[in-house]
C-alpha cells in the first residue's frame, strides 16, 4: 500500500497548525513544538520528541512522517567547502554546497533537478530539465547540511549556517509554488530563524514571478544579468528573448520599492572575449548607476564540453574598476570549491558517471589555473 503519511518537513507554520488541528484535533501550540523539534533539534523521529505525550506521538506516526532526501556522496574541498549529492532517482541527483567563511557560513541549495533556462555558460543547463523539487526536498537540504555539520561537532553551533542562497541547480522562480513555502521555513523563528536579508533567491530573470514575489515574500534578490545589452544577453541567457533587460530592471526596482529592500545583487559571469570588454562595463554602469544595485563579478568556472574561457584576472580587475569609477559598486566573487566541481555553474547532479565528469573538469582546471583571480 502506498505511504499516505504527510511529510511534515517543510510545512510552513500555518499549514502545520492546520494539519495538527484537522488530522489530530490538536491545538496550534503542538505545531510549534513540532517545528522546534524538526528544525532546531533536527529530529526525524516522533518517538524522540520527549515533551509530547506518548499517545500523541503514536497518533502522529500514523498520519505523518519526517522524510529527508538520501545523501549519495559528500566531497570536501581543500578550501573547506563541502558538497553533498542527494539522490532524486536512479540517475539524477541534486547538489547542495556549504561554503564556510570566517564571519559566516553559506549554504547554497538547489530548487530543481536540472534546469530549463538553458544558459549557454552553465553546466546545469547541459542536463536539461527533469523536475521541480518538493518543499520537503528544498528544506531537506538545509536539514541534512545542519545534521552533517553538527556531526563533527556534537551539540555544535546552530549559527553555522548563517546564510542560505538559492543559487544551486535550477531556476527557483520556475518552481515558485514550492520555493516560497520553503523560504517561509527559513525565515520563521521556529524554523531556521534567518533574517530576510540572509536568504537570497537568485533568478535568471522571470519577470512576472519577480512581481509576484514582491507581494508575497521579502527575501533578498539576486539577478543573473551577465550582459549589458539585449543582443548579447539573448545569447547567454535565453529567457531574455521573452523578458528583455528594460523589463527585467523595471521589475527589480519595483521589488526594492515594494520590499523596502536595500539593493539587488546583479551577477555577472566573466567570459573571456565575450562580455568582459571595457565598453561592456561602461554600458552596465549606464544601466545601474544611481539605482539600488550592486554588481557581483563571477569568474567563469569551466566544465566539460564548454567553449567558454574565464576572463584573465587583469580583465576582471579592469572591469571592476571601470564600474566603481562610474558609480556602481562591483565586487569579485571569490571562487570556492572548484576542485570538487562545487563552484558557481558547475553543479551537474549526475548520480552515475561521475568519473567522466571529474576527468574533464580536472583537465579544465589545469588549463585555467593561470587565470585564477
Ligand atoms: N537559475 C538561477 C540560480 C543559479 S545561481 C540563476 O540563474 O540565477 C548560480 C549563478 O552562477 C548564476 O548567476 C549563474 O548564472 C552563475 N553561473 C552559471 N554557470 C556559471 C559558470 N560556469 N561559471 C560561473 N558562474 C556561473
Task: Write the topology of this structure.
Elements (H helix, E strand, L loop, with lengths): L5 E2 L5 H12 L3 H13 L13 H10 E2 L4 E7 L5 E6 L5 E9 L2 E5 L3 E3 L8 H4 L2 E4 L2 H17 L11 E4 L9 H12 L11 E5 L3 H10 L3 E5 L5 H7 L8 H15 L4 E7 L7 H11 L4 E7 L13 H13 L3 E4 L21 H15 L5
Helix pairs in contact: 1-2, 5-6, 7-9, 10-11
Bound molecules: S-adenosyl-L-homocysteine.
Order of helices and strands: EHHHEEEEEEHEHEHEHEHHEHEHEH
User: Pairing-aware structural class of the strands and helices?
Assistant: alpha/beta
Strand content: 15-25%
Instruction: Give a list of the ligands.
Output: S-adenosyl-L-homocysteine
Span from first to last CA?
A: 56 Å
* Helix content class: 25-40%
Helical stretch tally? 12
Mean pLDDT: 91
From the spread of the alpha carbons, the general shape counts as: globular
Question: What is the CA-based Rg, rounded?
Answer: 21 Å
Low-confidence parts, pLDDT < 50 over ≥5 residues?
A: 353-373
Q: Tell me the number of strands.
A: 14
| Order of strands in the sheet with most strands | 3-4-5-6-9-10-11-12-13-14
